[in-house]
Amino acid sequence: MLDSASPWTPLSPSSRRVALEVLVHGPLARTELARRLDLSTASLTRITKPLVDSGVLREVPETTARSSGRPLQPLDVDPSRQQFVGIKLTGFRAYGVLTDLRANILATCTREITSQVPADVAQVLTDVVVDLSAEHAPSAVGVGLGGVVRDFTLVRRAPFLHWRDIDLGRALSERTHLPVAVSNDLDALMEAEHWFGDGRDVHNFAALTIGAGVGGGLVIHDRLVTGPDSGLGLLGHFPLDPLGPVCGEGHRGCADALLTTDAIHSQVSMLLGRPVAYDEVLDLAAAGDPTAERIVGGAAHAFGTLIAAVANIAQPERIILTGEGIRLARVSEQSLLAGITQARQPEASPLDLRILDDDPTLWARGAAAVAIQRAVLSELPRF
Question: What protein family does this chain belong to (predicted)?
Answer without folding.
Answer: Belongs to the ROK (NagC/XylR) family.
